[in-house]
User: What shape does this take?
Amino acid sequence: MDDARPLIEVENLRLSLPDLAGKPLIGPAPKLEILKGLSFAIPRGAVLGIVGGSGSGKSTLGRALIRLLEPSGGAIRFDGQDITHLPEADLRPLRRRMQMIFQDPLSSLNPRRRVGGIIAGPLRLHGFDAIDRRVDAALDHVGLPRSFRGRYPHELSGGQRQRVGIARAIALRPDFILADEIVSGLDVSSQAQVLNLLEGLVADLGLTLAFISHDLSVIRRLCRNVLVLHRGEIAEHAPTAQVFAAPRAAYTRELLDAIPLPDPDQPWA
Amino acid sequence: MLDGRGAIRRRAGARLWLSGGWLLLLVTVALFAPLVAPQDPLAQDLMSGRLPPFWSAQAEPGFWLGTDSLGRDVLSRVIWGARVALTVACIAGPLTALIGGALGLIAGFYRGWADRIISRLVDIWMAFPPVLFSILLIAVLGTGLTSIILAIVVIDWTRFARVVRAEAMNQGAMDYVAAAQVAGFSRLRTMTAEILPNVLPTLVALLSLEMGISVIVEAILSFVNLSLSTDAPTWGGMIAEGRTSIHQAWWVLAFPLVALFLTVLSFSQFGEGLKDRFDPVLR
Ligand SMILES: Nc1ncnc2c1ncn2[C@@H]1O[C@H](COP(=O)(O)OP(=O)(O)OP(=O)(O)O)[C@@H](O)[C@H]1O
Ligand SMILES: [Mg+2]
Assistant: This one.
């Protein structure tokens, strides 16, 4: 493995989805281009923040990175391997290495499976040994009691559910994790706890993370680099500190102005 | 605890036990009909026709629920009729659920051309009025138990296909299905191990309803004389015969009707009760 090489390389990535609203009565729906030629890389061990307005294509980009969606042009390389058009069967061995944490933890956990089964299923699929021990370790990692193995998702709080989602992802020892708005459904105190947890895990496990959020204060805290998306194009891709101090793109400035940021230097009035 | 869950569970429990109890009793007497039935259900005795039930002064011992106009024992005929009713329910119900459920699951989960074919088929099927359809089918297939069961399966699979398809589509849009893909599970495994358990409660409720419906359909076909050979005891046949002498011997009509009613009710209540008792999400 070439450690100097970025874990994920994206080159001129394009993605179109059928626009069902504009579908004529007969014939295929017209294509709507959602990602319009993105190029960037995520180095190993980096945390990349992805921000942008609603509908700018953040989720679409994220889902393309882990190949839940197939790009219509360009290339995505994961650890040097071109995965742009890899069929599902060939993706399967790579699936262990790229995981996802979802926005809505209730919808992303099968309501009729216990927590233990939810975490153990993927482990079993990928042929891990000592499954029980690994499930316990994953629960320990995210700070949930081991007794939660026997619980159903609806018997947990929102923050606890999101921890189960994180435990499921990290149990596989992935190289890359995509986190799509994972705290936007939580109350403020659970948000802080989940973010602390994630920060710790990234450091401990040497994860590479793509963190999608519309909350710039969260991005500022977690991510060294940030990628600003605007209508399917990259408006800015730079170190977070630089973006906040001196945003180059007009759109980034707009975004910074639109979202009220708690100014850490300002004393309480 | 002061929340309402205890009360709900107790009520669900009563529902489960009452309906389950009646169905168990029915299954037992149907299985052991030759031993349990006090009389030969076909034995006619014109001298003891239209005997009233046991509580009446004119009742005769051995004929607990009276006799019909040909002197046949009503209780024994209800018991033997249960055999037919339960056979139809226990074969036609699950078979319908299996075929309709599988097609609905595939259409709702895989979508695409599979969905287009199955949905068109359902649309075409629904255009036939079911009663005419069944009579037509029986006319083609001939009367008999197998024909009744076939007719029910052929007509009612769409009920399952429609409901299960809609439910599978709902479940398919949930993130846990995307999570299964992220984990690397195959589509087939996702359908059977993730979606199916979430569709199962709906399927069981429909199945219990369908078993009740099967009993009714069998009764209706017997009523219009399209079921078994005329002398085999069936509830529908008994109701048809009892109707002609309702003023002289109401019990010939009443007892099979009560058995039919209780059975259909029990099937649907049993399904609901099972759901309340065993679905982890509701529990
Ligand atoms: N399945 C789909 N079919 C067609 N268009 C879609 C589909 N999913 C998303 N889109 C469109 O693609 C664009 C980008 O959507 P996406 O979900 O990636 O945005 P987002 O940046 O994640 O927004 P949000 O912050 O609201 O989550 C939107 O304009 C949306 O309408
Ligand atoms: Mg999104």
Summary: Chain A touches chain B at residues 66, 68, 88, 91-93, 95-96, 98-100, 102-104, 107-113, 121-122, 125-126, 152, 154, 165, 168, 172 (CB under 8 Å). The first strand of chain A starts at residue 8 and ends at 18. Chain A has a mean pLDDT of 90. Residues 46-70+91-257 of chain A form a domain with the Rossmann fold fold (CATH 3.40.50.300).
